[in-house]
Specification:
Keywords: Cell membrane, Membrane, Transmembrane, Transmembrane helix. With about 350 residues, this protein is mostly helical. About 80% of the residues lie in helices and about 0% in strands. The protein has helices at about 10-45, 45-55, 70-85, 90-95, 100-125, 130-150, 155-185, 190-200, 205-215, 220-250, 255-265, 265-280, 290-310, 315, 320-345. Residues about 250-265 have low confidence and may be disordered.
Length: about 350
């Protein structure tokens, strides 16, 4: 029997068949993403949260065989591309500008929050993967970190539901922190530099960090942005460690070493690191940076919408109170740890 596609037309025929199977799901997620973007632009509020809630309302379509392949594509390939393009926002020069004391404080607070998440998850009867995902979402960059980790952790319906709950909760906590933390920084008489470190080191999502930081002035806003981008850069290391740990557990004992090494680092992580290096060398034209940022954001909104389509509110309610307690504890710990670092003067 002849292969289905042979000769020069094979790639075109394969692409046509792939699009024919997935375009309906892709269009559904695209419409949801555009609606979320429009509402966020007109009325304010978190775009990702809108996409998530709109997506959940279309969960009934996920069982349709014509819709599911496109939704799955958005939660896999599109998601990974969105995370990879975040690398174009970070340079090694920005990280170096923090100084070694502040950089060490960022690493210590991130690491302690991730370890707290893993340890507390076990105490609450959740598994290690859930503790790692919630800890990284809190410590690094909110919904983006949750989505990046979910791409390399073992996939299951329960894990997808947990990821969705993490995205909803950290987005809500990040929005509250955006309103409360500037008031707290002012009440504690933090200097603009200290306030920037506190805001950039403790709020989950990039957009909320920028908004809260510049409420306290240009110095605080600039510092908060750089600290936040440094936290985002740590995502690559955490995803690499998670991929190594979980792939080594599930690897077939007969698999060759060469295959293991090539499968160890996901392709989107290589692209993330390459973009960081290119941006550090100023090899990316400045005119392209807004476009890359927009494409990254659009991909993440599409992925969030698809994740919502895959999950129902009834399934979310079955996760119980433990994930909420886990995320709340991690959020409080991260904020308190930064206040302790700043008030003790350990960043000087």
């Amino acid at each position: 029997m002849k292969p289905a596609f042979v000769g020069p037309a094979a790639p075109r025929a394969w692409l046509s068949a792939a699009l024919a199977a997935r375009w309906r799901g892709l269009m559904l997620c695209a419409v949801i993403a555009m609606a979320a973007s429009l509402i966020a632009r007109l009325h304010g509020g978190p775009q990702l949260l809108y996409a998530l809630l709109f997506g959940v309302s279309f969960h009934f379509l996920h069982e349709d065989e014509r819709i599911r392949p496109g939704v799955e594509l958005c939660t896999s390939l599109v998601l990974r591309l969105g995370v990879a393009l975040l690398g174009a926002r970070i340079t090694l020069e920005q990280i170096a500008a923090l100084g070694w004391a502040s950089a060490l404080a960022v690493v210590a607070c991130v690491l302690s929050t991730v370890l707290l998440g893993i340890g507390l998850a076990r105490r609450l009867g959740l598994d290690t993967a859930q503790g790692l995902l919630s800890g990284c979402a809190t410590a690094i960059c909110g919904a983006s970190a949750a989505l990046a980790l979910s791409a390399v952790l073992p996939r299951s319906r329960e894990q997808d539901r947990f990821t969705l709950l993490v995205v909803v909760t950290v987005t809500a906590f990040s929005t509250l922190a955006m309103l409360i933390y500037p008031l707290l920084a002012h009440a504690l008489h933090l200097t603009p530099g200290q306030a920037g470190l506190f805001i950039g080191g403790s709020i989950h999502d990039v957009a909320q960090v920028v908004a809260a930081g510049y409420l306290l002035g240009t110095v605080a806003g600039d510092t908060a942005t750089v600290v936040k981008l440094f936290r985002v850069s740590l995502l690559a290391l955490v995803v690499l460690a998670a991929a190594a740990a979980y792939r080594s557990r599930t690897a077939d004992s007969g698999t060759g070493a060469r295959l293991r090494l090539t499968a160890l680092v996901p392709w989107f992580l290589w692209l993330f690191l390459a973009l960081v290096l290119l941006q550090s060398a100023h090899a990316i034209p400045p005119a392209m940076l807004p476009m890359l940022a927009e494409v990254s954001r659009d991909c993440l909104v599409l992925a969030i919408a698809a994740l919502g389509v895959k999950t129902s509110f009834q399934a979310l309610l079955r996760t119980g109170w433990r994930p909420f307690v886990l995320l709340l504890t991690e959020t409080v710990w991260l904020g308190a740890a930064w206040l302790l670092v700043l008030l003790a003067g350990w960043t000087h």
